[in-house]
Amino acid sequence: MDLQLDGLRLHVRKEGNGPCVTLLHALGANHAIWDAQAEALAQRFTVLRPDLRGHGRSDAPAGAYSLDMLAGDIVAMWDALHVEQSHVVGISLGGFIAQHLALGWPERIGRLVLADTSSGYPPEAAAQWPARIRTVLEEGLHGLVPATLERWFTAPYRERHAERVCEIGRIIETTPRQGYAGCCHAIAGLATTDRLSQIATPALVLVGEQDVGTPVSMARTLAEGIPGAELRVIEQAAHLSNVEQPAVFNRLLLDFLR
């Protein structure tokens, strides 16, 4: 379905019935990376899978976005669908947004799952975003696809599941350049490490053991910073651990949400 939210068209997949779970995807992805999780969750939950602002079939307005703006889109989606409270599962960029939801709208969050994500980047990593924004706006995303897929999946997975990897490569390549760049601006502003202790929501932190983009050390910072948070490392998985190891990811997710 498409929702009109204060001038923004947000595309959302809604499945299942029961307590609400909202799944927030990575930069350059869309709702389809959650297919395996939606299938498992829809047996017990109402599952919402939005294409984030700038991605998929949602609008991609020009200009810089912020994490509060992206989180506000999710709250507006809940309001439009009369959802008072939702569990939130965010991976990578989706995890950044999930943290802002937990900090800014704690009463709207049931349980929080942060997968392959971070609360901040070192200065040398943060300094790379302006160059990436320029490249994307000038040349599009085609040139970013090979390196992104190498970060997102281990080599054995890329070899065994070439068709699925190609599908996700096409999703990256067709992400609107204005939307990707806008979200890069938002990511450059990520800085929640010093605020993690304010998150009172029950939280689970998941990370692929071979994730080089948001490694285990970043996941540990999240788990140690959020009071009572659990940390689980998923073996034989890189950045998109939910795609690479769906059975393990789903088991950990369902056990936590139950």
From TrEMBL:
Residues 21-245 form the AB hydrolase-1 domain. Keywords: Hydrolase. The keyword Hydrolase applies. GO terms for molecular function: 3-oxoadipate enol-lactonase activity. The keyword Transcription does not apply. SUPFAM superfamilies: alpha/beta-Hydrolases. Its EC number is 3.1.1.24. Pfam families: Abhydrolase_1. InterPro entries: AB_hydrolase_1, AB_hydrolase_fold, AB_hydrolase_sf, Epox_hydrolase-like, PcaD/CatD. This is 3-oxoadipate enol-lactonase. The lineage of its organism: Bacteria, Pseudomonadati, Pseudomonadota, Betaproteobacteria, Rhodocyclales. The gene is pcaD.
